[in-house]
Specification:
With about 525 residues, the protein is α/β, with parallel strands linked by helices. It folds into 3 domains: about 100 residues, MurE/MurF, N-terminal domain (Udp-n-acetylmuramoylalanyl-d-glutamate--2,6- Diaminopimelate Ligase, Chain: A, domain 1, 3-Layer(aba) Sandwich), CATH 3.40.1390; about 240 residues, UDP-N-acetylmuramoyl-L-alanine:D-glutamate ligase, CATH 3.40.1190.10; about 180 residues, Mur ligase, C-terminal domain (Protein-Tyrosine Phosphatase, Chain A, Alpha-Beta Complex), CATH 3.90.190. It is about 35% helix and about 25% strand. It is globular and about 80 Å long. The N and C termini lie far apart (about 60 Å).
């Protein structure tokens, strides 16, 4: 059934005072868009001045396609055949207009917003299971997909654009969803995609270098994430802050977490801190191995034993974060632990790849192969440290860096890989408009600063005791060399793309799935055995 609303009602609900209100209030609209290519008869067009394209240049096209009114910035002076609604900033009002058109669906949902450099996706999977176990009906909006009530739609962005986001939330409400766990990216906060939404719980997982091509500095990057707590958390909402430990026990993130805690305190909002051996929700007596995590989870009021098949210290922090959200939502700690421990794995997050039709035991005849999304220095370090703690015969990593993104992190990732892995095969990731070899050379600058020698990959993989690195532009070939040259007892990490099933080469998306490529090579290894 098509949704129809009077423009005046939408403007009032969105909190906009418009000088031409009386002339336009009875115009009926059946939708809104900020993309002229999606315009159709009866729609409201919102002309947004983006970083690459200015929507004001496409007003004529939107009107020609049937838009009955247009929202423009205050300084727009061109003639238009349909009413123009002038506002100070169309980017700011778009989210509120979309929320108003879809009757503010977040008012009917318990909203959980998750921000941080790493861990957001894993936390949504944990929360999804936790909420289900507690009798709720969860929906998830995140990097991998949008899912609820058994339906899944691949995600184009971590956090959708405002109109798509509000429409998705409305569909969730209509389907009976009670809670939404939503990844909130720094881009979404900077570009005001979540305007019109207030959250019951806001979670901060961590922060490390990423997206500096967009934000410019760590301070500006953090300032955007800070907005989730300062501007989008309900007055009676709760902030869940993960306390992470850096190298040598240094609390690397405390400069950021302390600021968030102070913001919550100043605004009179509740705050729950989570951490390993510190925080209001804390883990003690913990143990990590290839089979997973075992830890005692404690609060001031309760204690329970957590046993999860997820691997590594960083996943214990994700589990603690989910537990903190569960407590903020009013759930019992024992029920929380029971729910989150049911999550067996997360797509592309330290996901183990096995040969076809083989269980874990049969897979032990080969190297242990993982695919992970780690594409920042800190994320790669966390994953490699976790795998190193499993004491493999050799730790082999295949990775690259994306083109048209923060170039400064490339040598840092090369340095991390060289210091923690035995064999490093640098390859192409999503080169976009850049030349893959140039990106790889940027990574190699970090490798050259270490003691790891450059050795031809074929020779490197022939000897089980050889350490070194090489550059293999073709990603399929790099994966082939890593897996076919590995031996039982080795661990192979294919990093950077995780759940993605494509490579972006130029402006084209070409099908490519690290998990599929790895499985193919494991199958060939089995046939040759």
């Amino acid at each position: 059934m098509m949704r129809r609303k009077k423009l005046g009602n939408i403007l009032l609900a969105a909190g906009l005072a418009i000088s031409c209100y009386e002339d336009i209030k009875n115009i009926e609209i059946c939708g809104l868009t900020d993309d002229s290519r999606k315009a159709s008869p009866g729609m409201l067009f919102v002309a947004v001045a983006g970083s690459r394209v200015n929507g004001h240049q496409f007003i004529a096209e939107a009107v020609a396609l049937g838009c009955v009114a247009v929202v423009v910035n205050q300084n727009y002076e061109e003639h238009c055949s349909v009413p123009l609604i002038k506002v100070e900033d169309t980017s700011t009002v778009l989210g509120y207009l979309a929320a108003a058109f879809f009757d503010f669906p977040c008012h009917s949902l318990r909203m959980i917003g998750i921000t941080g450099t790493n861990g957001k996706t894993t936390c949504t999977y944990l929360l999804e299971r936790l909420i289900t176990q507690a009798g709720g009906n969860p929906g998830v909006i995140g990097t991998v997909n949008v899912r609820f009530q058994g339906s899944e739609t691949p995600a184009a962005l971590t956090t959708p654009q405002p109109v798509e986001l509000q429409q998705t939330l409305r569909r969730m409400v209509d389907a009976g969803v009670t809670h939404v766990a939503m990844e909130v990216s720094s881009h979404a906060l900077a570009l005001q995609r979540i305007n019109g939404i207030l959250f019951d719980v806001a979670m901060f997982t961590n922060i490390s270098r990423d997206h500096l091509d967009f934000h410019g500095s760590m301070e500006k990057y953090f300032t955007e994430k800070e907005k989730l707590f300062a501007s989008y958390l309900k007055d009676n909402g709760t902030g869940v802050i993960v306390l992470t430990n850096g190298e040598n026990g240094l609390k690397a993130n405390d400069v950021w977490t302390d600021r968030l805690i102070e913001i919550l305190k100043t605004k009179g909002k509740s705050c729950l801190t989570c951490g390993i051996e510190r925080g209001m929700i804390r883990a003690t007596n913990f143990r990590f191995d290839l089979q997973g995590i075992r830890a005692d989870i404690k609060t001031s009021a309760a204690e329970c034993v957590l046993e999860s098949p997820l691997v590594g210290e960083f996943n214990l922090l994700n589990l603690l974060a989910a537990a903190g959200c569960g407590i903020a939502l009013g759930y019992d700690l024992s029920a929380i632990c029971a729910g989150i421990c049911e999550v067996k794995g997360v797509p592309g997050r330290l996901e183990r790849v096995l040969p076809d039709n083989d269980g874990m035991a049969a897979g032990s005849a080969f190297a242990t192969v993982f695919v992970d999304y780690a594409h920042t220095p800190d994320a790669l370090k966390n994953v490699l440290q976790t795998l190193r703690s499993l004491q493999p015969a050799r730790l082999i990593v295949v990775f690259g860096c994306g083109g048209d993104r923060d170039k400064g992190k490339r040598p840092l990732m090369g340095d991390v890989a060289a210091r923690l892995a035995d064999v490093v095969l640098v390859t192409s990731d999503n080169p976009r408009s850049e030349k893959p070899l140039q990106i790889m050379e940027d990574i190699e600058a970090g490798l050259r600063e270490t003691k790891l020698a450059k050795i031809e990959a074929k020779k490197l993989m022939q000897s089980p005791k050889s350490n070194g690195y090489d550059m293999i532009e073709e990603r399929t070939e790099a994966i082939r060399l890593a897996i076919r040259g590995s031996r039982p007892g080795d661990v192979v990490l294919i990093s950077g793309k995780g759940h993605e099933c494509y490579q972006i080469i130029g402006s084209r998306k070409v099908f490519f799935d690290d998990r599929q490529k790895a499985r193919e090579q494991l199958n060939l290894s089995r046939q040759a055995a």
